[in-house]
Amino acid sequence: MYAHVNLSRLCTRVSLRASMATLCCSNYGNIVSYKPPAWCSSISEKAPKSRLILSQMKTPIVPWNVPDLPDGFKLYIKRDDMTGGTLMGNKVRKLEFLLEDAKLQGADAVITCGGIQSNHCRATAIAAREVGLKTYLLLRSNSEDPDESRLEGNLLLDLLVDATVVLVPKRAGYVSQLMPRMQHVVDELKEKKLMNVYQIPLGGSNGVGTWGYVEAYREMMEQEVFSQISDVVVPCGSGGTSCGLGLASYLSGSTVRVHGVSVCDDQLYFHTHCNEILNEMGVTGVRSEDILDVVDGYKGIGYGESTDEELQLLTNIGRKTGILLDPTYTLKAVRGMLIEMKTNPSRFSGRNVMFIHTGGLYGMLDGRLDDVMRKQVTDSRQIISYFSTDRPPHL
């Protein structure tokens, strides 16, 4: 069914190549012309013509021995949490196209929206500041009082790069409430400050940003792993990453099946939104339902909210494998993937699965892990004292 490849050895070579690529990334911060893959010829007319290099490309793909991996499955992980430092994660791949588009349109600033600990908003604020653009962020919050905002995690990083934060209700719907508020802010800035503000949608997921993961798919093809990979699994929070991967798999003629584990909303929402993206990109003859498997049922008690069980899985995976997940996206997607492998293995095209780590680690530093970690640290005596030389620690 698949060509015999020593994927573990190949992954090691890919990791080394990725390290060298990072050292040699002389194009960082530059605008370069963009030529879509040859297999995108049917939509190349609407493809971006240039790209702003912001990410460390060819992120490593390595075997991942997560605890309780169901028998018969082999799991690999693509480390898109290593696309950059403060720019880590999947969002920077989209921003390479979105911010270049903003610059081409003569923008003075950008505006976008998300949760109070939004990874997308953090990456946007930092990348925009790097290229000289001011950022305005509409962030969903439990409180309308700015003094009650805890300055930690992604929010702290937003403020450190001079983003202006506008708090909106936590349950505010994107289309019904956030988009009108964003437009009002844009109009105010244009009228009062004569600013040209470029609007970036939730998660950077539109026909421009989605090219980031069409290009990421080409990167994975160049990393020579698809000869043995049967399935790709990725968190699905705004749809652009999943849509780009599914579209690239389809256009390239690959047999790899793409699964997006929803961490909010549902199948209907994501397929509807992805079909809008496909239409914007000029795709005809195929729908989201044909190229993307949206996996429902694992958003838990709500978007951005965690149970103790989920947090314990997060810490267990970190302790056993050294790979840290974020509680909003990657943790819920991994949990869903493992449960589906165990209870519904026929959902997968084969048994060699690659999970794409989309970053988000700064959102983990919002205090939600305090109680779970304190109990684990206390029970395992992970922190011990050696203040007095008369009382050496029991190790």
In the sheet with the most strands, the strands line up as 3-4-12-9-10-11
**Radius of gyration from CA coordinates:** 21 Å
| CATH topology type of the largest domain | Rossmann fold
Average pLDDT figure: 93
Structural class: alpha/beta
Q: Count all strands and give the number.
A: 12
Overall body shape: globular
Q: Helical proportion?
A: 25-40%
The SSE order reads HEEEEHEHEHEHEHEHEHHEHHEH
Strand content: 15-25%
Q: Assign the CATH architecture of the largest domain.
A: 3-Layer(aba) Sandwich
Q: What is the overall number of helices?
A: 12
Characterize the main sheet: 6 strands, mixed
Distance between the termini: 51 Å
Whole-number total of structural domains: 2
As residue ranges, the low-confidence spans are 1-5, 12-24
Class of the largest domain, according to the CATH hierarchy? Alpha Beta
Ordered list of secondary-structure elements with their pairings:
Layout: H1 7-23, E1 31-33, E2 50-52, E3 61-63, E4 74-79, H2 91-104, E5 109-115, H3 119-130, E6 134-141, H4 153-160, E7 164-169, H5 174-193, E8 197-199, H6 211-222, E9 231-236, H7 240-251, E10 257-262, H8 267-280, H9 288-291, E11 293-295, H10 308-321, H11 330-343, E12 352-357, H12 370-380
Parallel strand pairs: 4-12, 5-6, 5-8, 6-7, 9-10, 9-12, 10-11
Antiparallel strand pairs: 1-2, 3-4
Helix pairs in contact: 2-3, 2-6, 3-4, 6-7
